[in-house]
Amino acid sequence: MVLEGRLSRQQLRCGETRIVHSNEECVETKLQRIAKKASDDKRCQFTSLFHLMNKALLLECFTQLKGKAASGIDHVTKEVYGRELDANLNDLIKRLHDMSYRPQPALRVYIPKAGSAKGRPLGIPVLEDKLVQAGLVKILQAIYEQDFIDDSYGFRPERNCHDALRALSKAVEGNPVHYIVEADIKGFFDNVDQA
């Protein structure tokens, strides 16, 4: 990847994408320390984590974005953003830290929905919003991941629907089960009382 050619070996030394500045702790290590603190001290309240939303974290998020992912309303792709990656990330960090960053509206598209003539609406954020969202997810996951029960599978790292189906199969086959109910509330978010 072009990005790796711009980083020194010292900068590429830990975590999945191994991104760290020369004498700093890598992003992954910081997040692991936060996760350990959250796990060890359930009463701990994290009050200042915005400093973690830094260039190293956003650079890691950028490398993990899918290259062919749909672009938002600004039509900026990963390839285009990556051409001036250093300058783009510096500008994004500046806007985040001086509180001038504003998320862009999501591009609304409809994809086919099985068993329905209506399409399933999707909101596609612009690339910078994807980066910020991914960074926030990493920070919040470090704090809250250990609080989830083991039977929770939705939108969790290293878990998917196949894992949930395996767990369900094991539970059904190993216990006297008389009923299994599958429920889907039609248009739940359209009809729930938002207040």
> Roughly how many Å apart are the termini?
47 Å
Order the strands across the largest sheet as they lie in space: 1-2
Major sheet: 2 strands, antiparallel
Provide the helix percentage: 40-55%
Gross morphology: globular
Q: How many strand elements?
A: 2
The low-confidence runs, each spanning 5 or more residues with pLDDT under 50, are 1-23
**Average pLDDT over all residues:** 84
Overall radius of gyration: 20 Å
Beta-strand percentage? Answer: 5-15%
Give me the strand/helix succession.
Answer: HHHHHEEHHH
Derived structural class: mainly alpha
**Total number of helices:** 8
Keywords for this structure?
2 strands; two-stranded antiparallel ribbon; 8 helices; mainly alpha; 195 residues; single chain; disordered N terminus
Description:
This protein is mainly alpha-helical and 195 residues long. Helices cover 43% and strands 5% of the residues. A two-stranded antiparallel sheet has the order 1-2. Helix 2 runs parallel beside helix 6 (127-144) and helix 3 (55-64) packs across helix 6. The longest helix has 18 residues, at 127-144. Mean pLDDT is 84; it is low at 1-23.
Summarize the structure.
The protein has 195 residues and is mainly alpha-helical.
Secondary structure layout:
Blueprint lengths: L1 H5 L20 H14 L14 H10 L13 H6 L1 H13 L9 E5 L8 E5 L2 H18 L16 H13 L14 H4 L4
Antiparallel strand pairs: 1-2
